[in-house]
Amino acid sequence: MNPMPSSQPIFQRRRTTLAQRLGAFIMGLALILHPASFSLADESLTEEERITRAISDTLAASADTAALNRRREMEILMGDIRRVTSLAPERLRLLEIAAKGAIDHSLDNWRVSQEQHVRQQAQGTTVVAVQQRIANAGEVQIGSSSAADHPLWVKTLTQTLKPDEQQRYAQAEAERKDYRQRAINAILMAELERRLGLTAHQSDKLAPLAERTLTDYLPDMSNYIDRGSGIDFRMLLLILSGMNPTEAQAIITPAQWQRWQEITNDYAGWWQGIEQQHRARVGGTRK
Amino acid sequence: MSCSATSLRRPGRRLIASALLGLVALTHARAEEEPTEKAPFIDQTLERSAEFYASGMKSLVKEVVKITGTTPDKEAALAKEAQKAVDDKMAKSKRGLWKTWKEMAVDGQIDQVQFWDSYRRLPEAILTPDKSPIWKDALATILSPSQLLLWDAEANQRRGRIEKAINDYLVKGRDAWKLKRIEARKPEGEELITEYQLPEPAALGLRNGIEVIVTQSLSAWGQGLEKQIREYVKSAFLGGAEERIKQLEDGQLNFATTAEPAALEAELVHWKALLKTHLGESLYAQWASREQQRLDRRVRALAMIATAELDKKIRLSPQQRPQVEATLTRVIQTSITKVDAFLQENYANSELLLMVLNGVPTEEMKTLIEADQQVGWRTLASRYSSWWNQFK
User: Fold this and answer.
1) Nearest Cα residue to B84 out of B41, B35, B141
2) From B7, which residue of chain A is nearest by alpha-carbon distance?
3) pLDDT tens digits for A223-251?
4) Which pLDDT belongs to residue A97?
């Protein structure tokens, strides 16, 4: 970095420097008085011990992150329960305690998997290489479960909410699900109209067919279209594959059919999986 | 943390050390309140830029020497002035960056995409050392008149090559867009001709008019793209000049979106005018009403799916959901071309659509949802702000 010219804004330099100089002076004094307090990178450790420390630090950090993510999820969930049921603070407190326990226990299996994963990444190298490798180790999904599914949480929730509160909460959950289903139906038609250039008449004819097929197939498609990253709009259009081809092609023109094939071409192979799953689930044959 | 036997026998010293450590933490916390501590990315950027420009200006000096055949003492003088130009640029950049930070930071946090968008508009950001008056004066005073002529000729040739590369790139992209839009409009036109049973002259006018209206909208095409290209090659006089220009000439670069919402918007205006001419008032009103209904349905569908996605993340109550949907409907209505441009990208999905949260003013958001949900909303809005800013 080039030396800072004198025309730089002084608020960056003067205040920071004073604070840092004072800190450095006190730090030096403390170091003289008690050097062992500062042995974060102890020179006396063997390479193996340093590797062990690096692994422990990484595991502790990833466990903290995993716990933090679950805590945020549970905070949202508790906020939802509070809004829907108007739960009194003392009963909400019970849920908070249960949530903490559920978060901790839900990480039990994950901790084992994560440790195995990190140790596998860390084997047979120097501390520098280990640090680099485990820094990119990421978080395993194996053994990971939601705190909201943990029996401790589920049981406490059932015991804490009165029957009418449980009913209100279940009703809110059902409304959420229904809203999402309606949103998917609406976006499916909007995308079909936009991507295929459907006329109003075509749209009117296709809508009931599309909605019926979506209702039939959504349980089989949701793993494909409604994943963690949201609904893939192109993949959603695959639903045309689930319609009776004669009925569908009687509504849309050959040019539109071809356009649809071009749009969904990348995903066409996936439909076989969806269809198989559908047949296995409903036990019928394709309409 | 290990602790030696000697130090354990000295609890007094340990206590003092702990107290001093606490004091260090306090002073350090104070230092962290300073802008430089809170925005390390600014210092990192400045450091990288200083290195980039210094190395670029060094190669520029070498090229001036090669073209003009000037003497080693003049080369040294040029190198000195080149470094001055870099220092001047970096000092100005630093001022601009901190000025932007002070204007935009809220509680020590900033949206980096918006931050850079804002900073790049400043003259401090646009300036490069090779365009600095310091460097221009250096060339004029250090080189002899004949050497200056030689260098000016080279510089002009280089500028010409860059301009041609930019122009060729834009022409190619514009032609591709034009073709794509004509192909998209043709079936729409044919459907209207069939549906409304247009007489032959009107049908012909509509068919022939498609290319005309797409061509008319081309003036709105590529403005954002040209800006991005110019930003990319603005340092083409410096390091990597040849490589950057070559990439541009060979069409190897992909500058963000090719959806061009401004051009789409212009095209829609011309398309409506074309239909009005050839359908006549009555049929046009019929078409326009139907299109408006379709658009309303579409906007609502987009707002619903965005609401459902948000619902999944922050769990809206049955009372909040319709209010959020109405707000997002309004945002999408006013930025439908932006949203449509986003949807034309292959990676578009319902979660990325949450970029629309950036269109809701913070104060309004606070009236819609509770404090525990606002954290999630802000996180999502910030995560997808780059998409919101990209599609202008």
Assistant:
1) B141
2) A34
3) 777 666 788 888 888 888 888 888 888 99
4) 94
Measured in angstroms, the CA of A80 and the nearest CA of chain B are apart by 6
User: CA A20, CA B43: separation in Å to the nearest integer?
Assistant: 17
**d(CA A25, nearest CA chain B) in Å:** 9
Residue range B328-337: mean pLDDT, rounded:
92
Task: Report which secondary-structure segment, H or E, holds B303.
Answer: helix B261-314
- The predicted-structure confidence for B103-113, as pLDDT tens digits, reads as follows 877 666 666 66
The answer to whether A197 contacts B46, with C-beta atoms less than 8 Å apart, is no
Tokens 């999904």 correspond to A141
d(Cα B180, Cα A230) in Å, to the nearest integer? Answer: 28
B331, B361 in Cβ contact below 8 A? no
**Across residues B257-277, what is the average pLDDT?**
87
Q: Residue B14: what pLDDT?
A: 55
% of residues, chain A, pLDDT over 70: 79
Query: How much is the pLDDT for A18?
Result: 56
Contact: B294, A9; criterion CB under 8 Å: no
Chain A residues touching residue B350 (CB < 8 angstroms): 187, 230-231, 233
Rounded to whole angstroms, how far apart are CA atoms B61 and B139?
10
Report the amino acid identity of residue A185. Answer: N
Mapping DSSP onto H, E and C, the string for A14-78 reads HHHHHHHHHHHHHHHHHHHHCHHHHCCCCCCCCHHHHHHHHHHHHHHHHHHHHHHHHHHHHHHHH
Interface test with A, best of B347, B349, B378 (most A CBs within 10 A): B349
Answer yes or no: is pLDDT of A75 > 80. Answer: yes
What is the phi/psi pair of residue A230, to 5°? Answer: 95, -175
Least CB-CB distance to A80: which of B14, B195, B315? B315
In this structure, are residues B68 and B151 in contact, taking their beta carbons and an 8 Å threshold?
yes
Report the C-alpha gap between B35 and B33 in whole angstroms. Answer: 6
Task: Write down the mean pLDDT value for chain B.
Answer: 83
Q: Which residue of A has its CA nearest to B305?
A: A183
Residue A162 main-chain phi, psi, to 5 deg:
-75, 160
Show Cβ contacts of residue A222 under 8 Å, excluding neighbours closer than 6 positions.
none
CA distance B267 to B218: 8
- What residues of chain B lie within 8 A of the CB of A255, using their CB? 187
Does A17 have pLDDT greater than 90?
no
Considering only the beta carbons, identify the residue of A36, A39, A199 that sits closest to B191: A199
CA distance B87 to A7: 12
Q: Do B36 and A176 touch (CB under 8 A)?
A: no
Cα of A201 vs its chain's centroid, Å: 40
**Residue B66 and residue B119 in contact, taking contact as beta carbons nearer than 8 Å:** no
Residue B248 has pLDDT above 90, yes or no: no
Interacting residues of B98 by C-beta distance below 8 A, sequence separation 6+? A9, A12, B35, B42
